[in-house]
Design a protein that fits this description.
The chain contains 13 helices and 8 strands. It has 297 residues and is of the alpha/beta class. α1 packs parallel to α6, α2 packs across α12 and α7 crosses α13. The protein is globular. 47% of the residues are buried.
Amino acid sequence: MDQAKGLRQIARTSAMQRRERNGASNGNSYPRVIAVTSGKGGVGKTNIVGNLAVAMTRLGKRVVIIDTDVGLANIDIVFNLRHKYNIRHLISGEKTLSQVMVTTNHGIGILPGGSGFADLTHFSEGEKLTLLSEFEAFSDMADIILLDTGAGISSNVLYFNASADQCLVVATTEPTSITDAYALMKVMSQNYGIKYFKLVVNMAENRTGAKKVYGSLSNALDKFLKNVVLEYCGHVPFDPALQKAVRNRSILLDMVKNSPAADAISDLAKNLLNDDRTNQNQGNLTFFMNRVFEAAQ
């Protein structure tokens, strides 16, 4: 049995075992995986991830964040957490998921990233099997998994984006951010067949400016790419309270009860949770990681 067939067989077996444990027959109990990504760095993606996680937790969801950024992993900074281990220790088999995972006071689980996170094409079969085994544990601890990806079109960013159930693209009104967001969606569409994206415009002065960003991207996609759908999910306005939270290494939704940015992120969380349209329809987290590895081949 070759490596790809072996990984698929493990995924099927793990899915069957999980359904038997849960007594489920509809296959709909696995966590939804949402990739939060951007074409350009510095657009506030990680802060959106952190606050989205808190908002979803307040809506009764169990949330896990996986920091897949390479070299610039910083979701722990947003929550002002300290950790000894990261995803590299999980991949190598040095530590288990329970040893690597850290938990916020909101009950959000975080799998920290690290500079040692190699390109997925370099993983050995043993490392892949380790990840497949460990990731299955997420099926029992989360309703939503948020992937905080790196920016740009590097291989790891594309692998995780292409394998997620939903892909939320974060952009700003800056021309370079818009151009890079288009480039990201173009590559994902042409190379991985992803046809459905969501957009949130961060640090926008007003709704009009945010809608212009959406219009520009939507028009470009309609003109140059076939059958690619971009859904506008709103904007997060520039908010001094959010800037203060960033400086204090705090979560905005913890600092203030109501602010323009906090309200917008809460609305975004509801939007994502209420939308059942996904790019994938598999059966568990083992299938998710199997998709990631297949994309890397």
